[in-house]
Amino acid sequence: MFSEPAANIAKLGLVDSMKVVDLGAGSGFYAYEAARRVGVSGRVYAVDVQKDLLERLRSNGVAQGIRNIEVVWGNAEKIGGTKLREGIADAVIASNILFQIEKPDEFCLEIKRILKPKGKVLIIDWSEVSPIGPKTVFPSMKAQMLFEKSGFKLEQSFGAGDHHYGMVFTRI
Asked: Domain 5-171 is in which class?
C-alpha cells in the first residue's frame, strides 16, 4: 500500500473546529482529508511555495465541496515564512517534505512557532528502504532527533504505507 492520507491523519485525532496547517501541501490529499475531519467550523491552511499547485488545490477542493481550506503561498523553511500567526494551529501536517528541506532546523522552528502548546505534528516521509523513493531521504531517526531537540516529544511512530514512515510529535 502506498501512503494513505486518511489512515495517517487519523493518528492526529482531529475533531470539529480545529485549525490545521498542511506544509508543502502539494496536490492537497492531506489537506482535503484534514478539511473533512475538522468540518465547516474548522480550517485548514495549505502552505506551499508553488503557486500553481495551490491554485489547483483550491479549485479541486471547491469542486469536491470543500470550502474550509485557505491556500497560503509561503516558505516553511524560514521563520515567519508561512505568513501564519504564532500559535494558530492545533495540528501540523508535513508529508513528503523533509527529504526536500535544505534548512531542517528552521523548518522545525517554524512548525513550533505556528503550533499551539501541546499541538501535534504529523510527519510522513520516504522510508530509507523504499526502492521507489528519492535518492536522498531524511531517515526516521534523524527526524526524531531533529524534532526532539526542537522541543517536541515523540508520541508514536508507525509504518505509513509500503514506502513511508510516520511519526506524531507533541509540542512540549
From this structure: alpha beta
